[in-house]
Fold:
Amino acid sequence: MSTTLQTEQRLWQELAARGAVQGECPEHSHAPWAVRCLMGAAGWLGALFFQMFLVGTVFVAARENGVAMAVTGLAMIALAALLYWRGGGIAASQFALAVSLCGQGMAVYGWVEALGFTRVTETAGFWAGIAVFEAALALLVTNRLHRLLSGLGVWIGVAGAVHLALPHGSADDWQALAWSLGWLAPLGCALATGFTLAEARVCAAGRHALLEPLADATLLAALAMALVVTGMSHPMAWLFDPEAGRLSMAHWIAGALLTLVLAGFALTECRRLAAGSAMQAAVLAGTLAFGALMAAAPAVVAGALALALALRRASMAWMGLGVAAIAIGFVWYYSALHWTLLAKSVTLAAAGVLLLAGRYWLLHGRTGKEFA
Structure:
């Protein structure tokens, strides 16, 4: 008997002892991972042939008719929603996912083609419309993976809208992404933190199935944006282009805001655990010091926050995202050519010493013994 089945039976026996359930534990067969992979591949393969026929037919018949393409895309999304609603196995759900993604692409392409490609895509309103469109799909289509991808689509639309709406005055427009995403990364981390703190109330209200995949997408998008800011920000840009002065502050602003979010979560956890005032002050001071040392690498601060949220939620997926963000953030920060080797070495070494000192104090200090 597998460990999973043993755990299920043990939990069922505990619930039966409390009177919450009756009868025998229902049988639940878990398909091997190889079978699940093959079924998923079969679903994508079937969707590929279906879409090659459908998309090819539509493009040949209406390649210059954007409205027809958009309508076809919406019809494909409706078909995917119907397949999700009827239920089915892994192959059916993957088939529906592939059809929905292709339908979204056709709907957006047809919309752009009908309104004029260059004129539309360079406006903030277009990207805001993408965000609204993906948000509507997240509400209407109940599949968890589909909601996760729709949540990522919402953040892509929001990032495009913010990037075009904020004035940056940079000749290299792609470099201004660090300025735009430097505001969105802390916002995403703050939303993920708010979900973590309110998760119990969300479950009680029956909205966990809706909000959890959106929270996953929010954290993933926030970590990705923090990594972009860490790698693209150039602290000496103002020397070469006076108009790029605020762009060179993107990583400092993002790092400072992420530090505030991390410190707020740490303080909230201390109060939830009924820690004393001395402990709260020490944790807050250590968190602010760590954030100040790593402010030039916002991805590291965001990864530390993701780790803290993962421990709070007991989520292995969030823990993996946090570890990956910290590792990639460290490598990207240390390999950046626009920082001196001395500055990078000092900040990384100081942050490591600070964390080791904090661990030693928590384990061997008087206050640490109270929580042992």
